[in-house]
Structure formats: structure tokens, C-alpha cells
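Table S2 (continued). Query chain:
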Amino acid sequence: MPKFLDSLPMILSRSLDRVMPSYRRLFQANDLTDQQWRVLRALWEKQHLTSAQISQITLLPPPSLVGILDRLEKKNLIGRLRSTEDRRHIHIIPTQKGRALMEHMMPMVESIHDDFMQRVTAAEWDEFNRILNKLSEPTKKRNLA
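Corresponding output:
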């Protein structure tokens, strides 16, 4: 068994604690929470998504996502469009103000990312992603009780 500080949860927590403050300062300067950022970032990449798709991509549970979407809509950063094919489906899209925020923030996000990337080689980054993706894959559940 690994020592406490060498355990996977502690390594991941320590890494997150060192990485996120740079991003959180940027989010706060733009009046966003981490969760709101995740939703906007997904929408900026995909242009329109249903709330179920956003939940899956961002790992935000649907009950939490409802409030996040409401707050983003009140800030006029997203809009909701009912599907013409199936009126039960509502697509979430970034508004003009939301896209302007993307243009404003993405260069700073890229700068933060680049600062961290200078610490590793491209090969190390690829390996890091490969390992984390492997660890993120579903496993057979064992009864630990």
C-alpha cells in the first residue's frame, strides 16, 4: 500500500490545488464559477448542446446543472433554443455576449496552459493524458464492504 502522500487521491488533489488557482483567478475576474466555466467551455467548443450532453461532458449532475444554466442565462451568456425536430429537446447555445467572453478569456486560458506545459515535454504530456484516461475508464466494481 502506498504511503498517504503517495496515494492517488493525494497526488491528484495536490496537483489540482497547484493548478486551479491560476484558472480560478481568471474565472473570478470574469464573474464565473468553476462550474459555469466548464459549461461555457463545452459550449464554445460544440456551439450547441442539450442539458443532458452538457451534464455528461462537464461531469455536472443534472440537478446542479439546472441552476448553473439559469445563472448563465441571467448573465446573458447562454440562450435556450427549442429543437424544431423534437420540441422536447432544448439546445443550449452561447449568446453573442458569451462568444465575446470566449474571445476575451481564451488567450488568457491558453497562456495559463502554456505556463504549465513548459514544465513537461510533449511526450510527457501525452503519457500523462494516456495514463489519466486509462485510470478514468470504468472498472469492474468490487464489493469492498
